[in-house]
Amino acid sequence: MKRCKLLCLIFAMCFSAISLGGCMGDLFEDGNKNIDATKVQIYVGTYDGGYGQEYLQVWKKEFEELHKDDEYVTPSGETKVGVEVVPNLSSDYGAQLETMIGSAQDDIIFGEAFDYYALAQSGQIAAIDDLVTETSPFDGKSIESKMTTDQINFYKVDGHYYGLPNYEAVYGLYYDVDLFELNGYYFNKNGQLITNAYQAELAAGNLSYGPDGKTGIDPKTGIDYSIDDGLPVNLDQFFTLADRMVEDQVWVMTYADRLQFYYNQFLTSLTANFMGRSEMMLNQDYTGTSYTLVESIDPDGTVHLQEGGVPITPATGYLLQKQAGRYYALEFTEKILDSTKLYAYMPFTGSKNHVDAQDAFLKSRYPDQTSTNTKPIAMLLDSSWWYNEASGTMATMAQTVSPQCAANRRRIGYMPLPNETEGGKQNTLFAANTPSVVIKSSVEDWRMPIVKEFLQFALSDEMLSKYSITTNAVYSLKYTLTDEDEENATYFLKSLMAMHENSEIVYPISTSAIYRVGAGFTSGSARTGFFSLVDGVQKTYPSNALGQDGISAIDYFNGLSAYWTAEAWERTYGTAF
Amino acid sequence: MKRIKNIEKCDFFYKLKRKLKDGIYTLEVALHNKLKRKRKNTASIERENKLNLLFYISLVTLPLLQVVVFYFYVNFNSFFLAFQEYNPVTLRYDWALWKNFDNIWFFVSREKTLLYCFRNSALSYVVTLFISLPLALLFSQYIYKKGPAGGFFKTVLFIPSIIPEMIMTTMFLYFADSFIPATVKGIFGKEIAGLLTQGNTTMLITLLCYSVFISFGGNIIMYSSTMSGIDKSLVEAAQLDGATQMQEFWHITIPMIYPTLSTFITVGVAGIFTHQLSLFSLFGADGNAYNEVWTIGYFLYSRTVYAGSANYPELAAYGLLMTIIAVPLVFTVRYLLSKFGPKTD
């Protein structure tokens, strides 16, 4: 009995030790123990999904090369400088930061979806005014000069910078350029779909100027306006094209129906493009005048707007549920997910995640005996990080199917979203997720200069160009690709860069108090933007409601205002006004 | 010759085994002599008491610590949070008294979402109680009575419980959304949507079936283990009296395992408010699952996981409300089960 007790005691102590050991472990540690202890290390953390961590490895290599002969003065003597990338696999990395940043190993955090203001005001992240405003020795520019006014206003808290923008992600439609050219899915200047006569019309310079209404390269700015030439400019043209694709046995699009918030994010992009920047910003600042509030909608979908502008304040923010852009986006959804039209490939399985959708899109033009789908898919609904996520698939396809399938040879571009004009309207992009980069305030004083230097180095023009080449994406700052990178850039990256330069961009950031309590399109993981009350049931995802439940776009749109009544608005966001 | 070699080999192992046994016995004797109980005097009794105390402390420290940290500390904060609201200017929580509860009532009274959640959570418990539990009991009895291939079934049915949930749900998604439609098309030539297709009427029933399936193995292990502890003389006496298998199950097995049974029925009642019907594993945390199949557990989880500082007070109020409903319900069920359930004597 005694021995039994002794054994139990040992077991109990072992369990306690293991449990407590688990509690004390560094939650941000990635298990990489091969850290060079002879160097002073800069720990850089990021979520290892989407854009991944490869760009950090590139920056690390460049920075270590830059300092290979330098000695850094530490309290214990002089030593070399190293950079350690700390990838984090948790998609809640940003949310974890708010409670864990104090104990995090990371000095610099390239994060997303965390409460920047809460971290700044709690003193957990360092003020970096010098880093932001001083001219960088690496490119002769200050980081502040690369930021937009919105970004400057947002990142300045009580007159001090505590963070900087991170990546730029745009949810939208990405189209297979080769398929479009093959089938002539472009419009001519008369607004007619070209199809078989594509090459002739192209040679004759008859392609329409696309949604932006411009073509050619602007000699002053270098912006390429021709990248959207011939693409549909409004809903009518878009669905003319969609009908043609169905005739040709081509799926118009596919998306990750298991991740319905992807569709909601896309809907936000669509709404932003319909509304334009100033109307979209009302949904974040809640100060200004709205000129697009709907008075009524005829059964045939004709929209009648309220005459004159309606002043918007935080207290009357619920009125924005009537913005016409929301209706147009819902109308688009109603049509594209119409199950009788067969536009979308497998729209409601509930089991298709983003990788499945990417694979289906990429492989659709190269079916084999095991393929469940044998029809090409023209467009993929996803965020701009998808190209980096799908790099493995494309590499495999390049080896097993055709070298043409490699990421650097395949031609996939961003499709400017249709709007309600006849063209000539500047695109409006909605950048998702509010990603930011911050430095932890608990970095030791003697290490802080080198930590800041790394960030300054990383955000220099040359390194931002390397970021783009590595991730096939745009960083949320003003910069251009170096000549060498420009030459090596994929079609996808060129398309994104062109759209970035040629569009008004709405960042989901605001200094308004009401935005900080969650009033906005993308709060709560992009769900609150389309809360609708239809027949007493709260609907969150228009893709299902319109595509499957048979709810019309008009009913869903009216449900937005039914959900966000003045009282519901006051009860939810009343603390901010 | 080969046979002699085998005998020699056997002999060698026999000797080795003997030696090992002797060695262990000698070690035991030595340990016994060293640790042998001496005549108890006051000092030794005190020492033994101290040892006992240390033993109990070491056993209960971890669970107690867990209760203090993960129940009292966490809920202590949530309790006060339920009566506060977030101030976006000061970034602090101010007292708001009943405002959060009032807001909950406002939204609940005008929407059906939470009603769906209550319905589905209750339905899930009813299915567990009236389908899962009887099935598990009957099958456990079969295994306990050593029915043909009982051990095999026990192992096979337990496999889903040891396979990681993410793998199981991925396989089930494939089964429900791809395999079943393909099979139906192959056999009947009819196109059907996947069973878990969002908004499909089969969604809830499929989720309930999955819930029964996934919990089956664990339940069988638990009940058959409890059954194996039943006094054999009781069973023999019943058999001598001519009891049938069913009578034995009803009058011997059920009363003898009743304490375990009633405990799990009671715990299940508390689980109504947290059970999420595998929705998180199947559809993610984002509230991706169709509103009409949500449970209370999934509703609260999906709201909490992406909530910001401003949302926590209302969620804390939700939690407090659920506790107010759950606690009396659990105690009532426990009281009724102990009052009206079978007695082992």
- Counting structural domains of chain A, the number is 2
Q: How much of the residues of chain B is beta strand, in percent?
A: under 5%
Radius of gyration of chain B: 28 Å
Mean pLDDT of chain B: 85
Low-pLDDT residue intervals, each spanning 5 or more residues of chain A? 21-31
Rg over C-alpha atoms of chain A, rounded to the nearest angstrom = 26 Å
At CATH level 3, the topology of the largest domain in chain A is D-Maltodextrin-Binding Protein, domain 2
How are the strands of the largest sheet of chain B arranged? 1-2
Structural class of chain A: alpha+beta
* CATH C-level class of one domain in chain B: Mainly Alpha
Percent helix range of chain A: 25-40%
Compose a concise summary of this entry.
Chain A has 577 residues and is of the alpha+beta class.
Structure description:
The complex is a heterodimer of chains A (577) and B (345). Chain A is of the alpha+beta class and 577 residues long. Chain A contains 24 helices and 21 strands. In chain A, the strands form 8 sheets. Chain A has a 5-stranded mixed beta sheet with strand order 4-1-5-18-8, sandwiched between helices. Chain A has a 4-stranded mixed beta sheet with strand order 10-15-9-16. Chain A is globular. In chain A, 50% of the residues are buried. Residues 21-31 of chain A have low confidence and may be disordered. Chain B has 345 residues and is mostly helical. Chain B has a domain at 112-340: Orthogonal Bundle (MetI-like fold). Chain B has helices at 2-35, 42-81, 99-110, 113-144, 150-162, 165-188, 202-227, 232-240, 245-271, 279-283, 296-305, 312-340, and strands spanning 84-87, 92-95. In chain B, strand 1 and strand 2 (92-95) form a beta hairpin. In chain B, helix 4 (113-144) packs parallel to helix 7 (202-227) and helix 5 (150-162) packs across helix 7. The longest helix of chain B is centred in the first third of the chain and has 40 residues, at 42-81. Chain B is extended, with a radius of gyration of 28 Å. Chains A and B meet through helix 1, helix 4, helix 20, helix 21 and strand 21 of A and helix 2, strand 1, helix 3 and helix 6 of B.
